[in-house]
Amino acid sequence: MTGPDTGAANLALSAATRAGVTVTEVHEIDELVELNRVIDAVWHREGDAVAMEMLRALAHSGNCILAARSGTEMVGATVSFRGVHEGRPTLHSHITGIVPGSQLRGVGLALKLQQRAWALANGIGSVTWTFDPLVARNAHFNLTKLGAEAGEYLIDFYGTLRDDANGDDATDRLLAVWRLESPRVARALSGLAPAPPVEMLLQQGAPVVLDIDAGGRPLLAGLAAWTETAPERPSRALARIPEDILAVRSRDRRLAGQWRGALREVMTTLLARGLRPVGAIAPGWYVFGPAGSDWPA
């Protein structure tokens, strides 16, 4: 007899095979030390990315700590722990890292699918995590490829994180909620519901509320349609962000801060009026629709 956790395990194994890695749980101190080195290779934070005694306690107390290995080399890792979301058990994915040279080859997907399989096997129906909404490739991966939902915008959630990715920028985050057995997730993981080209949505009249001007700066427009006094609000909106905000941060901190403020205004305004980021289209477009609306419908 097979169940959802069996199907999830098979899906995870297929993804790992395609990426050329094996994904396993880690528990022992030497493995956890290696895991911290992997995460530090991505984030470059002072000291351990996660305190060793905390990692050891999390692993020992029945949480999900995974490593991806190419041969004997650990090339990716993720740390997650049990929590509660909307009154139900969830698995909260705290931090993930894929070493340079192994990114963009499917290792991240293999880790997420193994995380999903672990959660289902342990009777947990959702995984949550936070991500920087300014990182376009993460938005596409989380919302479109995985089918996660995002309905909560968290302003400066972690305070200052001085690492290579965040610098001194405010740590605004979207909370991703991955409802592991939902039709939305099934469609996303099947690959049978590809995102429409943004040109199609523009032709259908979706208003652009955030765009990029000729100088690379954020261009706000059209948010007045979602004010309290607006007689009628569109049911869809588009917002464009830089394709690579990390490159922007490395060369112009002030411009990166302008993008943070602009996207914060867009996200908080639309979320307050009932729209949600239901998908993300490369190279940097958010698609907003009503809460609960299917993607890409």
In the CATH hierarchy, what is the superfamily of the largest domain?
Answer: Gcn5-related N-acetyltransferase (GNAT)
CATH architecture of the largest domain: 3-Layer(aba) Sandwich
> What is the spatial order of strands in the main beta sheet?
1-2-3-4-5-7-6
Q: Give me the CATH fold name of the largest domain.
A: Aminopeptidase
Shape: globular
Mean pLDDT: 91
Which sequence of SSEs, written as H and E, runs from N to C?
A: HEHHEEEHEHEEHHEEEHHEE
Give the total of domains: 2
Q: State the separation between the terminal residues, measured CA to CA.
A: 34 Å
Low-confidence stretches: none
The proportion of strand residues reads 25-35%
Biggest beta sheet summary: 7 strands, mixed
What is the number of beta strands? Answer: 12
Number of H- or I-type helical stretches: 9
Describe the 3D structure.
- The protein is α+β, with helices and mostly antiparallel strands and 297 residues long.
- The protein has helices at residues 4-19, 29-43, 52-60, 107-121, 136-145, 183-190, 198-203, 245-251, 253-272; strands at residues 22-25, 64-70, 73-85, 88-98, 126-131, 149-154, 173-179, 208-212, 218-220, 237-240, 275-281, 285-290.
- It folds into two domains: 4-190, Gcn5-related N-acetyltransferase (GNAT) (Aminopeptidase, 3-Layer(aba) Sandwich), CATH 3.40.630.30; 198-290, no CATH class.
- The strands form two sheets. Strands 1-2-3-4-5-7-6 form a seven-stranded mixed β-sheet, with helices on both faces. Strands 9-8-10-12-11 form a five-stranded mixed β-sheet.
- Strand 4 (88-98), helix 4 and strand 5 (126-131) form a beta-alpha-beta unit.
- The mean pLDDT is 91.
